Each structure stands twice: as structure tokens, then as C-alpha cells.
Amino acid sequence: MPPPDPQQTAARAWFETLRDRICAEFEAIEREAGSDAAFAYTPWDRADPSGAPGGGGVRGVMKGRVFEKVGVNVSTVGGTFEGDFAKSIHGAGEHPQFAATGISLVAHMANPHVPAVHMNCRFLATTKRWFGGGADLNPPLPIADDTVAFHAAMREACDAHDPAYYPRFKAWADEYFYIPHRQVHRGVGGIFFDHLESDFDADFAFVRDVGLAFLSAYPAIVRARMDAPFDAADVAAMRAWRGRYAEFNLVYDRGTLFGLKTGGNIDAILMSLPPVATWD
Asked: What is the value of pTM for the model shown?
């Protein structure tokens, strides 16, 4: 892939910094629970279909007492989209070259009262350049206070940049994080955005604030719920809910499709899948 330009370099540096801060906070929570669990990091390289180097990334996974399985990945890839897939990507229809860097996080929790969560932010460059991403809360057993707190953090991040962002991006999340064949949402929502390309500095500042809002809101929710008592029925409900989550990620998730279509690391792409799930 060609050498990164200053915008790509800045975006990658932030995503790696955010990863480090989030992973440190999650490991601190494990320490508080009396666990010595830590992230294991696995680097991977990608070969572009053209045969040229295609970048790569680092897959980080931790399995602990509080986090049954959490993955935090950062990747920086580039090259040429193959076939008709290029036509589905903003700005790549006529010229299939691309560069992409981003962070992706999914946490599945041991206690059914602690919500699972997803967050990702990315910067893509084709003939156009834009940011996308979002964060959404996925509780097997929803608790209203947690939903309110998570959405309040996302609203604050949005309102600092444009008061129209939160209602627009919340509605987009409600539409996107939906399982049509089940006719249910996969969680209690959050925000989802794509194709932010009006001004790099302004859009990058917003994306950083989304990451910081997540870092502020989610660990607080985990700490509030991780010692809550639960029983076998709660675990059964969580595992059945996880089945729905897996269905969404395998059938509808854009990030999964992008990773598979661009030759990404399979384990990193599918780290979003829960460790244990059930279907009737």
C-alpha cells in the first residue's frame, strides 16, 4: 500500500492511542475484580490481491472474570477493491484504490446484568475521504439507568459539535442495528454515522470525542453492575440474546463484510462473536 499521508497518520495514531487507553481501563476493572486477566495482542499482515503489501493490524483479546470475551482491534489496510464490491464503497466505483484505518471493539460480559457493547471508528480514503463509526449498548437484560447514561454520553459528544448530530445519528443507529428476520433491535441503541467528509479537522475532532465519551460512559456502567447477583435463568437469557447478536454480525454488519471482502484477518473480523451462545 502507498505511504500514508498526514491525515491517515493522524487518524491511525489516535485509534491506537484510544485502544491503549480503553484496554488499560478494562484491565483495571479486572484487577478490581481480583483477576489478573490481560489483553493478548496478535499482529497480522494483509496481502493485497494485486500482490503488493496491503497493511495489517493488531488483534487484542482478553478473557477474564468480568469480561468473558472482549476484543479491541486496530487495523490499517489499503490496496484495491476487487470486482463489484468497489461499487458499494463511497468514492470507489470508478477508481477501486482505497486506504482505511480504524478501531473496532466488542465486549461480551460474564454477568448478564452488565451490558455487552460495540464501538468502532474509522477513516477511509478512496477518491473521497470520510469518517464513520458509532457505539451501541447491547444488554441481554436491559436496565433503564444504563441506557439513559450511555445515550447521555453520546448526546454530549454530539452536541459539542452539532445539535443535529445526536437525533440524526441515534435514528441511524436504530435503523442500522436491527435484525429484520427477527424483527427486533439487537440492543438499546446508541449512535451510528458514516460519510462525514465536510472538514477533516472538525470531523476528526468529533470522532475523537465519540471515543472519549465511550471511555467515560461504558467502564462506569460495568463497575456499577459487575457484582450484581444473577442465576441460571439470567445466563440462559443472555446466551439466547447472544444468538441474535451473532446473527446480526454475520448477516448484516458492514464491518464484517468489509473485512471479509478486503482480505482481513479472519480471527480479528470475527472477534465480535460471543464465546457462548444458544439457539432454540
From this structure: 0.93
CB 69 within 8 A of CB 108: yes
Residues annotated as catalytic (active site), given as ranges: 118
Instruction: Show pLDDT as tens, one digit a residue, over the chain (280 residues).
Output: 667 899 999 999 999 999 999 999 999 999 999 999 999 999 999 877 666 668 899 999 999 999 999 999 999 998 777 766 766 676 666 777 788 999 999 999 999 999 999 999 999 988 889 999 999 999 999 999 999 999 999 999 999 999 999 999 999 999 999 999 999 999 999 999 999 998 999 999 999 999 999 999 999 999 999 999 999 999 999 999 999 999 999 999 888 877 787 777 888 889 899 999 999 8
CA dihedral 82, 95, 123, 72 (to 10 degrees): 10
Looking at CATH, the fold of the domain delimited by 6-272 is given as oxygen-dependent coproporphyrinogen oxidase (3.40.1500)
Contact 249, 256 (CB under 8 A): yes
Where are the domains positioned within the chain?
A: 6-272
